[in-house]
């Protein structure tokens, strides 16, 4: 069967009434959390993990993907009207979008963001459908050595991509890897780091850790900052629709943003932020109206928003084909797969093709839903910005606690939720990224398993990891991903010191 046949089968799965309901719930929730500053799709999916563990796996994963796509859409509303990005990937949109809103052109700014997101999401989802089978064929030749090298690459790139410091990212990763060692060793049957506590013999629940780090930690961090005063929301004046000139100036940036965002999102060290900055730089260089940049250029909204949504589909390429998360939301979605006993990767395409292709096809449906939801209901999304912060974050705390009790009614589990929530708060205060902790807990046992298999086959010869060309290349890339950012930061620091010394002279 070809890709078209699989995609058609996936559309039949995604078009089932209950799956359509799951998709609608996902995109609605995603748009809402994208609009609200400080609440991203990763936090929302983490909150829903304990609530959905008894639901249908396919429907739940379709809902999670809808939240991811919806969060990318909704983030532009806050950036344009409030000059406060709901997501880090919407930072660039605020540069030109808020200037357009202040000039009375908030409607066209929101329209080009929504339509650009639709165009990019549609093209990128089709690209995902056609590229994924080829990566799966390549991954099927992987053995234990190659998979371990791939895990090392994922660890390094995730640690480097999140946060401003590679060292802090690696520290967070090792916290997650340490937590992954707790429990019973699957090979020897010995207990590790359980300290005589029976509740720790089964290890740390990924769901509990994700909810605690993303929801409890974020809530405590926001509460600790106190009341910063009300934010000014720019009113949407005039028509929400775009003029013929706006269309003419937007369609090329949409396509260029898609071409930039998708491959960057698919890279192990990708992420939407990089694509949006590159798209903005490209539009600034290619524009026929350079004087408008910095004062509300529509190209500066169209291109980055397209890159933003294209990267979301690109992120699903390594997640579905190799089981590697490259964003915080993808890491939580990986936890969602494992919650149902599923491991994303090449074997999932062979053993459960209906689920995978139904999930991919649901993204096409989600795109149409989001286009209908975003433009006509813009007034509703703006009203969400008026929800008092204490009510909002108190609701998150309550929902996180009730969800954890529902999934695992245990006093010990609630204690773990609070302890990890405090850990997440402390890490945020000191600038340590959260996502590497969750990635370390999820992928740590898999990396250990593949390393042990490789060493068992080679009878303990560690050099076997470098005799495989694919494994060797992956390990070299991992080393470069670790060393190059450190060198660049050191050079940048040296240049700053040189400039300071020159200014003192």
UniProtKB/TrEMBL annotation:
InterPro entries associated with the record: DUF112_TM
Top-level taxon of the source organism: Bacteria
Keyword terms, alphabetized: Membrane, Transmembrane, Transmembrane helix
Domain DUF112, first and last residues per copy: 20-438
Keyword Ribosomal protein: no
Keyword Glycosyltransferase set for record: no
Chain segments annotated as transmembrane: 20-49, 61-82, 109-135, 147-163, 169-187, 316-335, 355-379, 391-411, 417-443, 464-488
Short name of one Pfam family: TctA
UniProt-recorded name of the protein: Tripartite tricarboxylate transporter permease
């Amino acid at each position: 069967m070809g890709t078209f046949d699989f995609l058609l089968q996936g559309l039949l799965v995604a078009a089932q009434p209950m799956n359509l309901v799951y998709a609608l719930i996902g995109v609605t929730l995603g748009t809402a959390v994208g609009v609200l500053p400080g609440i991203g799709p990763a936090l929302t999916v983490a909150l829903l993990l304990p609530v959905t563990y008894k639901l249908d796996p396919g429907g739940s994963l379709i809902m999670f993907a809808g939240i991811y796509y919806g969060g990318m859409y909704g983030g532009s509303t806050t950036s344009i009207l409030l000059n406060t990005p709901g997501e880090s990937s919407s930072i660039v949109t605020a540069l030109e979008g808020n200037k357009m809103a202040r000039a009375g052109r908030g409607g066209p700014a929101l329209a080009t963001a929504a339509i650009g997101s639709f165009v990019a999401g549609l093209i990128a989802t089709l690209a995902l459908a056609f590229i994924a089978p080829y990566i799966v064929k390549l991954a099927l030749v992987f053995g234990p050595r190659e998979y371990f090298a791939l895990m090392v690459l994922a660890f390094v790139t995730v640690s480097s991509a999140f946060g401003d410091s590679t060292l802090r990212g690696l520290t967070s990763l090792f916290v997650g890897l340490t937590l992954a060692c707790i429990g019973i060793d699957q090979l020897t049957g010995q207990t590790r780091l359980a300290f005589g506590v029976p509740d720790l013999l089964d290890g740390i629940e990924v769901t509990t850790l994700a909810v605690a780090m993303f929801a409890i930690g974020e809530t405590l961090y926001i509460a600790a900052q106190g009341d910063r005063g009300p934010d000014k929301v720019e009113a949407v004046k005039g028509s929400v629709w775009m003029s013929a000139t706006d269309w003419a100036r937007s369609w090329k940036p949409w396509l260029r943003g898609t071409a930039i965002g998708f491959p960057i999102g698919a890279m192990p060290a990708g992420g939407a932020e990089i694509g949006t900055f590159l798209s903005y730089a490209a539009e600034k260089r290619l524009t026929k109206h350079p004087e408008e940049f910095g004062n509300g250029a529509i190209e500066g909204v169209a291109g980055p928003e397209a890159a933003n949504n294209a990267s979301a589909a690109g992120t699903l390429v390594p997640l579905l084909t190799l089981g590697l998360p490259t964003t915080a939301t993808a890491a939580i979605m990986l936890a969602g797969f494992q919650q149902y006993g599923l491991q994303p990767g090449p074997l999932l395409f062979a053993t459960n093709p209906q689920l995978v292709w139904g999930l991919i096809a649901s993204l096409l449906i989600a795109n149409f839903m989001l286009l209908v939801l975003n433009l006509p209901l813009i007034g509703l999304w703006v009203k969400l910005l008026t929800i008092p912060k204490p009510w909002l974050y108190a609701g998150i705390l309550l929902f996180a606690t009730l969800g954890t009790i529902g999934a695992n009614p245990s006093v010990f589990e609630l204690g773990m939720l609070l302890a990890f929530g405090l850990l997440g708060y402390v890490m945020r205060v000191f600038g340590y990224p959260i996502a590497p902790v969750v990635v370390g807990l999820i992928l740590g046992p898999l990396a250990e398993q593949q390393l042990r298999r490789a060493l068992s086959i080679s009878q303990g010869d560690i050099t076997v990891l470098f005799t495989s060309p694919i494994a060797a290349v992956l390990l070299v890339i991992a080393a470069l991903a670790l060393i190059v950012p450190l060198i660049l930061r050191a050079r940048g620091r040296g240049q700053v010191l040189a400039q300071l010394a020159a200014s003192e002279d």
